[in-house]
Amino acid sequence: MAIRVGIIGYGNLAKGVESELRKNPDMELKGIFTRRDPSSVTTKTEGVPVYSSDDIPGMKDDFDVMIICGGSATDLPKQTKEYAKYFNVIDSFDTHAKIPEHFAAVDESAKGAGKIAIISVGWDPGMFSLTRLYSNAILPDGNDYTFWGKGVSQGHSDAIRRVPGVKNGKQYTIPVDAALEAVRSGSNPELTTRQKHTRECFVVAEEGADKALIEKTIKEMPNYFADYDTTVHFISEEEFARDHSRINHGGFVFRSGKTGFDNENKHVIEYSLKLDSNPEFTASVLIAYARAAYRLNKDGQSGCKTVFDIAPALLSPLSGEEIRAHLL
Amino acid sequence: MAIRVGIIGYGNLAKGVESELRKNPDMELKGIFTRRDPSSVTTKTEGVPVYSSDDIPGMKDDFDVMIICGGSATDLPKQTKEYAKYFNVIDSFDTHAKIPEHFAAVDESAKGAGKIAIISVGWDPGMFSLTRLYSNAILPDGNDYTFWGKGVSQGHSDAIRRVPGVKNGKQYTIPVDAALEAVRSGSNPELTTRQKHTRECFVVAEEGADKALIEKTIKEMPNYFADYDTTVHFISEEEFARDHSRINHGGFVFRSGKTGFDNENKHVIEYSLKLDSNPEFTASVLIAYARAAYRLNKDGQSGCKTVFDIAPALLSPLSGEEIRAHLL
């Protein structure tokens, strides 16, 4: 019998889960939960029931695992610990500084209910974190480097759109090639914020707006842009719609370390992602961990976990024999 | 108390374990076992006892984990299952086709003794296998690509040295840049053996040997060279010693897949290694998994495992709180 999966929320990430579940025949999408009026939601997949979030507690026996697709700022800190009382749950909580607090709250709730919760699943946190952990364990004497992009930063795009006179805006974070090459060479460079990334902004200005002032306001914005080399391009609404509708992203994680009795040998580990769709890739990671959550719970385990606690074999639909024969 | 580690064998890999254990303060090298006369072996580390392999069974309470550094062809198929009767063990068995058989034999032995054995640890099999497993679980609709090099192939170097008239030889496997770029673009190319790698040979010929014949013999050698574009350079013994004494290696693992309701989004996952010392890097991986073996066994588990079965957190000397705070 297929693993019965529910989706909580119906934004970009949730739609990614909806599309990618179809590539996993051992899993079945059994329902989508929304805070809106369910009758106002049209799903992309025919025949999938849409329920009100209010119905969640009453359906505890109808789902094996819930993928919670809320935002990290306000939704997930409430939702994950609440829904872990009823289901095995997965979230993509990405507010790094608040992970310990979120972990503790969810752990208490999941243990109380005998359920598994896996938090902070995605690519960063997620696959990038795994690369850092594996690489640090292998090369204790070394340095870590993380670069993001080229890709869309939602937070920086929002910041642009709050500038007076801006109608629409999108910001791409771009790793600096020279910095990537320096890290790749194993030279263990010290890199400033400005040396690692540039920021490129595409802005649709309102009719008659002062473009010079908009550009200055963006470039001098503290925290967001002031520490970076930032480029601002003004474009038309048509160009914006045509060229900047994708939610692509990606990045690089490096560990550069030394071995040998005299530390004479250098090693560079590099992991990179080039993603046309950030939400669909993140959704794909959530789905693999949903499988693991279901299996762990079936095995009698409970509590909050992260990607660090999950044996890789649990992510694969294949058997132990199959993965040893084909992937080892 | 530090984890008490023993090394079985004293070749390049074992010396790598010896040097890299010093970077792991939670572990202690308690002894090296050799089939030679122990008094003939001088270790690089002062004060480490050298024992005869014959003493292994009698020392079962003196070591928490043994890192077995024998060869895959004849040593490991015997050693790992034998020593798993006395200790938690790690090996780097890399004969892909024989992994299921090796796994079964070691599993029986380790289960009988209540010990943990982790086999096929290193980078391929090992870190490359993990990348394949994670990436396949995340992107079920996609293609895998593995490239090796630039690096020294021991098997191909041996093959060169067996050619009449060859005094010394070394072979480098080199991935073809155009193939790497095609895979990186997400175009999912079909690549022949010849399109993926080239082979570069450095040969010291014996005095008066027929170099044209040596070159022809190498280039036409079935399995090893005939399917590749191979270059042969004749060099002096001095050049060979000066430029070709390192045992560097590396490679690339890619997963290129699609997501979206209409499969409209491409994603490329890339993992790569650039290693100055193949044996020291492999040793570093073995050490991290030795830590995991010790912990799993302390937790009451037994039997044969692979990298697929080991939760990443078990590899790190840091606590769960620390890795969540610093690496997630």
Report how far apart the termini of chain A are.
Answer: 28 Å
Mean pLDDT of chain A: 96
Beta-strand content bin of chain A:
25-35%
Briefly note the structural class of the backbone of chain A.
alpha/beta
Order of strands across the biggest sheet of chain A? 3-2-1-4-5-6-14
Largest interface: A-B, 69 and 69 residues
Secondary-structure element order of chain A, as H and E?
EHEEEHEHEHEEHEHHEHEHEEHEH
How many strands in all of chain A?
14
- Describe the biggest sheet of chain A? 7 strands, parallel
What's the total helix number of chain A?
A: 11
Oligomeric category: homodimer
Shape of chain A, please? globular
Whole-number radius of gyration of chain A? 22 Å
Tell me roughly what share of residues is in helical segments of chain A. Answer: 25-40%
Low-confidence stretches of chain A: none
Describe the structure.
Two copies of one chain form a homodimer. Chain A has 328 residues and is α/β, with parallel strands linked by helices. Chain A contains eleven helices and 14 strands. In chain A, the strands form three sheets. In chain A, strands 3-2-1-4-5-6-14 form a seven-stranded parallel β-sheet, with helices on both faces. In chain A, strands 8-9-10-11 form a four-stranded mixed β-sheet. In chain A, strand 1 (3-8), helix 1 and strand 2 (27-34) form a beta-alpha-beta unit. In chain A, helix 1 (12-21) packs across helix 10 (278-298) and helix 2 runs parallel beside helix 3. Chain A is globular and about 60 Å long. At the A-B interface, helix 1, helix 3, helix 4, strand 13 and helix 10 of A face helix 1, helix 3, helix 4, strand 13 and helix 10 of B. Strand 13 (265-275) of chain A pairs antiparallel with strand 13 (265-275) of chain B.
